[in-house]
Design goal:
This protein is α/β, with parallel strands linked by helices. It has twelve helices and 13 strands. The protein has two domains: 167 residues, 3-Layer(aba) Sandwich (Rossmann fold); 144 residues, Response regulator (Rossmann fold, 3-Layer(aba) Sandwich).
Length: 353
């Protein structure tokens, strides 16, 4: 675990242009039409087995995407197998090799960082097995150097800015933030750096510290670290920005121990994914104020569609779903943010189903 100090202190900041801009961004939301998916593509290719290799099926975001993949695989008529990488690089490597042993028609990486699995992905390329990823690289779209036909994710810079903007706007330009991330995933490092950069543009906001700790250990390993942060910064620590909701789980024990109720600072904001436990905390006002959620179910359908394009020897769709700011006023009642945009019907139309 690495903890890096970044300064402290705060003052009033309502007149700061960055604060006004943050408020404008928080108030802006993508229309439902932005969640419809691509307008055209190839019809469904012949059935062939597909393997979903999950980085960690206990992660709510990955599990949400897996459910979307399951739905879409049934709809297009492809057999699907799901393997769990057990939240570590070796487990993910073994799962990938097991997937390749099945000689599948395609592989989906669910949260597996492609850069850590280059050897297995070279084998996939040599065998002619197309690979698509979810959160497997920093940017959405194809990445030939990593062996990905395409990577499905919302723009991580946009996700990070929206999370930081909410903290800036909610604090009226005085946020004192601690940022939690996992150095084992390139997209999480990028998101955390982008959140820090956005916070620093606010004149009277501060990034107090950046905490680097594995997501897999966050739920049980952060109570002591968070207690030390509360002791060090006191009232200056009023926002916890994290790349995964597991960090909020881990920090909550320290908040309770310090006598903080769920509606008192530090207020937690999670950048990316958006799962059932996050929405439950937001609805209850229980140590989490907001989540910048991705449409996980839709992205599961997109992963199957992208594999269909690879198998049809057509280019990736280029579609990138925008994130959605979730607060108590619009928190979904279901397990994921699932926009009623007609994306399922759209994909079925494309596939001829």
């Amino acid at each position: 675990m690495l903890v890096a100090g970044c300064g402290g202190g705060k003052h009033g900041g309502a007149a700061d242009p960055a604060t006004r801009q943050a408020q404008a961004e928080v108030n802006r939301a993508a229309p439902l039409s932005a969640y419809r998916g691509p307008s055209r593509g190839p019809p469904a290719q012949r059935p062939a087995p597909v393997v979903f290799v999950a980085a960690d099926l206990t992660d709510g975001g990955i599990a949400g995407v897996a459910r979307g993949v399951q739905q879409a695989a049934r709809a297009i008529g492809w057999p699907l197998q799901i393997l769990d990488g057990q939240a570590n690089s070796d487990g993910q490597r073994l799962a990938l090799l097991a997937a390749l042993h099945e000689k599948p028609g395609g592989i989906i990486l669910g949260g597996v960082d492609a850069a850590t699995q280059r050897a297995a992905l070279r084998k996939a390329r040599a065998q002619g097995v197309p690979v698509v990823g979810w959160h497997s690289a920093v940017q959405p779209g194809p990445d030939r150097t990593l062996g990905l036909f395409t990577n499905v994710t919302s723009d991580p810079a946009g996700v990070a800015r929206l999370a930081a903007d909410y903290a800036i706007a909610d604090s009226r330009g005085t946020a004192g933030a601690v940022i939690f991330t996992d150095a084992g995933y390139a997209i999480d490092t990028y998101t955390a750096d982008a959140m820090a950069s956005a916070i620093r543009k606010c004149r009277n906001c501060k990034v107090l510290q950046a905490v680097v700790s594995p997501i897999a250990n966050a739920a049980v390993g952060l109570a002591g670290v968070t207690a030390a942060l509360l002791e060090r910064y006191g009232g200056r620590f009023d926002y916890l920005l994290a790349v995964n909701g597991a960090y909020v789980d881990g920090a909550s024990a320290a908040f309770i121990g310090a006598g903080r109720t769920g509606d008192q600072p530090p207020f937690s904001i999670v950048a990316g994914e958006g799962d059932e436990s996050e929405f439950a905390r937001i609805r209850a006002g229980n140590y989490q104020k907001a989540s910048v959620a991705e449409p996980l179910n839709l992205q599961g359908w997109q992963l199957i569609d992208e594999l269909n394009r690879a198998r049809a020897r057509q280019p990736p769709s280029g579609y990138v779903a925008p994130p959605r700011l979730i607060t108590q006023s619009n928190a979904p009642s279901g397990p994921v943010f699932d926009p009623p945009s007609g994306y399922r019907e759209n994909y079925l139309r494309i596939w001829g189903r």
